[in-house]
Amino acid sequence: MTPFGERIRALRQARGLTQARMAADLGISAAYLSALEHGRRGRPSWSLVQAILGYFEIIWDEAEELQELARLSHPKLCIDTAGLSPKATLMVNRLARDVAKLNDDQLDRLTAILDEK
């Protein structure tokens, strides 16, 4: 599941909506909404994110946060380390190999380090 998918699922469930109802209201298929929620599709389009913001009447900071989650929710990445140091290339490869083995606390610590930059 992606951060964006997790958030829209929580929003949908908090309002007692089924995937079928929300998808129909947004003009997308329930299968596509399910794939978005479970991280089996790439980033949603800008227009779909805007439609979701309007659907849930999300504004201001919460809207910016959801838009950022959408930008950061591509489930398959390709990272070009050409021109970076060997340490950077090693780190990216190790992270790709081992990210599934990290627990939430470890992921939070890595995120905090990245947030320090």
Notes on the protein architecture:
There is one protein chain. This protein is an all-alpha fold and 117 residues long. The chain has two domains: 69 residues, lambda repressor-like DNA-binding domains (434 Repressor (Amino-terminal Domain)); 31 residues. Helix content is 65%, strand content 0%. It contains seven helices and no strands. The protein is elongated, with a radius of gyration of 17 Å. It starts with a helix and ends with a helix.
Fold topology:
Blueprint: H1 3-14, H2 19-26, H3 30-37, H4 46-55, H5 60-71, H6 86-98, H7 104-116
Structure keywords:
117 residues; mainly alpha; 434 Repressor (Amino-terminal Domain); 2 domains; single chain
**Poorly predicted tracts of residues:** none
Structural domain tally: 2
Could you tell me the mean pLDDT? Answer: 95
Distance between the termini: 26 Å
Helical segment tally?
A: 7
The shape is: elongated
- Count the beta strands: 0
Please report the first level of CATH classification, the CATH class of the largest domain.
Mainly Alpha
